[in-house]
Structures are given as C-alpha cells and as structure tokens.
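User: Continuing from earlier, I have the next pair ready.

Assistant: Great, send them over.

User: Here they are, in order.

Assistant: Folding the first of the pair now:
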Amino acid sequence: MDKKHNIGNMSVIAHVDHGKSTLTDSLVAAAGIIAQEVAGDVRMSDTRADEAERGITIKSTGISLYYEMSDESLKNYKGERAGNEYLINLIDSLGHVDFSSEVTAALRITDGALVVVDCVEGVCVQTETVLGQAMGERIRPVLTVNKMDRCFLELQVDGEEAYQTFQRVTENANVIMATYEDPLLGDVQVYPEKGTVTFSAGLHGWAFTLTNFAKMYASKFGVDESKMMERLWGENFFDPATKKWTRKNTGSATCKRGFVQFCYEPIKQTINTCMNDQKDKLWPLLQKLGVVMKSDETDLMGKALMKRVMQTWLPASSSLVEMMIYHLPSPAKAQKYRVENLYEGPLDDAYATAIRNCDPEGPIMLYVSKMIPASDKGRFFAFGRVFSGKVTTGMKVRITGPNYDPGEKKDLYVKRVQRTVIWMGKKQKPWRMYHVVTPWPWLVLTSSSPRKPL
C-alpha cells in the first residue's frame, strides 16, 4: 500500500455498553466483509467466548477495511487525500474501567478516534477517561451520538427535547476535549454543522451527519450545502407558513428548529410508518426520499422492515467511514506531530526523521502493541504498527523491551520475522504481499517462546 495519504488508522472508544462493538459491525459491513443486514448482530470484533456471555469487550481487536468512496461523496472534499480508494485500519477498544491499559496500547498505534456516546446516558465517567487518554497520545477525535433508535422506539422523545439532549452531549464532549488542548493538534472540538458529529443507531445499522440532509435540502432552498448545514443546527428556525428562517422561535405552531423539522421528524415519520406497517403511506414516502427497496424486502413487516428501510436510506457504513476519512488525519500527516510521543531518542536523528516523514525507505521502526496467543501452544502473534521502513518475512529485526537502556544488552533481542499476517477480527489472514509498507499498522510477527518477547 503506497498511498499513505489514503490510509486511516482509527480506534473506537467509549464508556462501557455505549455500543462500540455493535457500531463497528456497521463499519465492517461497509467493506463488504459482512452483510449489511446482519451488521450489529455479528459483533466481528469480539474474539473471545466470554465476551458474548458477558456482553462486553474484554480484548481490543484490529480489523482492516477497504472502502471505495463514490465520486459524489468526493465532490466537495478538499483535504490531503486523493482518489476514492481508502484503507481503514480499525481497532475496537474497551469501555470497562478495569481495562484502561488495553485502551492506551490501542491508541498508541492509531491516529484518530471515533468517540461513541449513548444519546440517552450522555457523556459518562469512562468517556472522559478514554478521551483524556486519546488527547494524551495526540489522537484527533470525531463523535457519534449513538443509540438514536432509543429516542424513537423506546422513549418516544419529541424533536425539541431530542435536540437539547444531543446538543448537551456534544457540549459535554467538547468541554473535555478543550481541557486537553494541544497547540500541535489545533482545534479538536467537534461540531455537527461541520460534519464532525454523526447521529447513529448501531444496532439497526443506520446513521447520518448533517451533510446527508444538507444535500437533500440545499437545492430546495437555493443555498450551498455548507450554508444549509449551519441552518440544520443551533438557533435556526423555519416557518413553512411564511417560508422564512429566523434566529428565534416566533411562537407560531408551524415554526420549528431546522434540525427538528428537516432531520428528526422525517426519520421519526419513516420509523413510525414502518413499525405500524402502513405500507400505503410508506412507499410514496420512500419515493420522495429516493429510497429504492429490493423486491424481496417489500414483504418485511415491523422492526425488520424499519431496519432495512433505514439501512437503505441512511447506511451507517458510509456516514461513519466518510466522516473519518474527511476529518481524521492520515499517517503521513499525523506522524509529523506525534513523533514526540512515539520516539524517546533525539528528535533530529535518522529514526525520528523517518517516523516524521512516514518514510518507507527509512530504518524500520515498529511499535508492538500487544502479544496474542496463537492457536498452537507456545506461539504468539506480535501485533503492532510500522511507523517507518519496510518489513519482509525472513528479515532480522532488533527488538528492545520496556527495560532496555541504550548502549546495554539488557532486554535486547534479535529475532527473525517468521511470517506476516493481517488481524481481521476473529481471524488472522496471510499477508500475501512481500513488503509491508510503512503506514500499514497491523504487521504481525511470530515468536516460538511464550516467555520472551520477539
């Protein structure tokens, strides 16, 4: 993979039980690894039997996803990336407070973080903890307000109350991010009107950013998409009777907040129509939205129908992946300001320079994040990320452990790379290319001794 600007190394972080693993399934579905219909139920990132029994993630898991973005989605993108082919290396981390060290290890080998917050429970204690860990590693965050389905199906929340809840979640997250302000990172706060906040229902596999609705309404109101996005958040109200936007609610029964009128209520109407099996109203509604259902899906009823309609209209895969591609940095950009966190030696030597430039021709610099027991006893996979250089199967590598001191041989080992594989959730797959180029993080080496590091 020689397109280092088109790689994204991401981690999913959140408080326990806020929906990280379920939401990760939607990202996996975007790469075609699992079907969109079963996203949220498979839990690809849960690799242990006791994780399913306890209902929580115990070990962080990595998975590499190939994503091809449409020309329409790329039309207004003006960032560092080029082309429509992207590689997303994703780690589903842990939310339980007892596993904080596992989260730190996962963050070290990523450049961006998808912060997941339950829209009903809001920002919790562990949300603040993992955000602090991310900021300490100079990880740029984006936010998803998850479990939106609870507002429509469980709590029956009206639009204005829902908006106030979502705004409070965003503001609380921004307060924490502002606490860990870093000049090298710049502004890390998230804003729905700038596309850095997603509203999602991981269990049902749908999500949206304000960009989705801005594209729908921009031509109707004769404004560009960025202007429409601003109107869909904050103190912006629209009255269909007068066809005017105002900064305050006029008190008229028809005057409603932009977000409520153009985002929340259309979703609520669609969900209620599906759940009540009002297909005579549903098909004309879907036609207006431009949603085309497959012939074998028209016989679905109730929640199954609602899930397929919402996945077709607002697929979580595209909204989440595109937000991360647009707003989270590539290795080529992130390593320039993260080198101080990654390397303890002089910042002007050849090794620091190679990391900073993400140089595939530089010296091999690899960080091993964790050791994973193999299926056969006595062997381990070393899971890590290459920050510079190239690694080939059979080459000798120099490993320095945590107790290594420069100039001494204590905790220093020279081993040969026996093979390289990719960690794909519950499985390890052979890496068929001869070289593992610098930004690829999931380099896996093997060791025959359980007592010694590689």
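And the other member of the pair:
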Amino acid sequence: MAWAKAPDFRDQPERIEAVRAQTVVDKQTYLDLGMQSVECRTCGTRVLARKNSFKQTSIQWTSDPADTCPVFKEAISAGGSTAQHDSCPRLRDSIDHAVAEGLLEVVDREGV
C-alpha cells in the first residue's frame, strides 16, 4: 500500500473555499463553543472546559499550568515536563463535580 498525500484541490477554487469555510466552523465548534470556566476546587486554577459526552472532556488552560497548578509544578520541579501529564486529577475531579452540580453541561448525555 502506497502513501497518498491528501488532495490540495489546486484546480478547484470553489472547493478550496468550501474547505476553508468548514475549517472555520470546525474551529468554532471544537475549540470555542460551549467552553465554560471551571475552577479547581483544590488550588483555584481556572480553565475553560466542555463535556461533549460523559467520557470526553475538552480543557483549555487559561494560564501556564506549571505556574498555577501544584501537580504540574511538581512535575517540573522533579525534572519532568507538563507535556507528560494529560491533566491534573484534582482538576478532573473539579470538572466532574461541576457536571454533578449542573454547572457544566454534558452536550451528548447518551454518547459513550
């Protein structure tokens, strides 16, 4: 099986514009819409979060986690990197609590 590069639609300007327009919509849908501020109940760090389903959580840090989150600070001081952590378990608990309290909506309650 040979590797194939994705088409660039050079000869189809209307298709290029349609792809660009859909990219703007996708960015808004997946990166902007439905993001709500959630505060870590342990350290007070604030993030933007969205729950598309009970199993899927999107998190956007509004500050450098190494500056505000003790879990990430500890990783850095131990010679690690913030890239080695998916998230902070305390923050994840805070997001789950926000869902349980009705402060953060789960968009697709039936999604798995």
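Worth noting for the second one:
Helices lie at 13-32, 65-68, 70-77, 89-100. The longest strand covers residues 46-51.
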